[in-house]
Amino acid sequence: MNPLVISSKQLTARRSLNSLMLPDCIPEEPETSYPSPVDDCDSMVSVSTVTASTTNSISSDCSLSEYPWFWGDVSRDEVTERMRDKIDGTFLVRNSSTSGDYTLTLRKNGNNKLIKIYQRDGKFGFSPNESLPFSSLPDLVAYYHVHSLKQYNRDLDITLKYQFSYDEESASSTVEQLTNLLHTVHLDYLRKSKEYDLDHEEYMQTSQELNLKRRALRAFEETLASFNTQLELHKK
Fold this sequence. Notes:
Structural class: alpha/beta
CATH topology of the domain at 61-171: SHC Adaptor Protein
Distance between the termini: 181 Å
CATH class of the domain at 61-171: Alpha Beta
Number of helices: 4
Strand content: 5-15%
Helix content: 40-55%
CATH superfamily of the domain at 61-171: SH2 domain
Number of strands: 6
Largest sheet: 6 strands, mixed
Radius of gyration: 42 Å
Shape: rod-shaped
């Protein structure tokens, strides 16, 4: 049999084998669409449609100062102090020391992770040497609210779960201040109450001594009057 001639059975077998082989190129997965963002600036924004290279901008007229997670010009030391004891996934964004850029502070494994957010020509992202994919800072926050940051850094397998509101912290600080004030006032009350009790006890003792002396004085006066009466009788 000529080896170059392929029988119909062999051809059928080869076609069956080829049908089981993987294709040369794996087809791309379809883009995933997420719910449209809400317009309420006081709530966490939802993520808009995101592709590998672009992201739709959140349509909102709210300025960054109206987003609860944005703290503006606040020092690193203040953020470090206020983020203490917060649970993992808690985050806030503040202005960076570099004009136009921002710093994301994220709680991870009980520590604060500082991540710089770059802005170039109205685009935002974490890597200045690569194309910045986000059209706004809220877009970036919204995206990583549902997507892990391990896309950016494999050690950051976490999302931006809990926005840390500056107003919430201010209110918390006010409550803490009032609690401390109440504690101070209470201690002062206890101190003054103790002083009052001591003064009252001393007053009662003095009153008793005064009453005894008054009784003794009246008895002495009565004795003196009786003595004078007897003296007058003897003179007669």
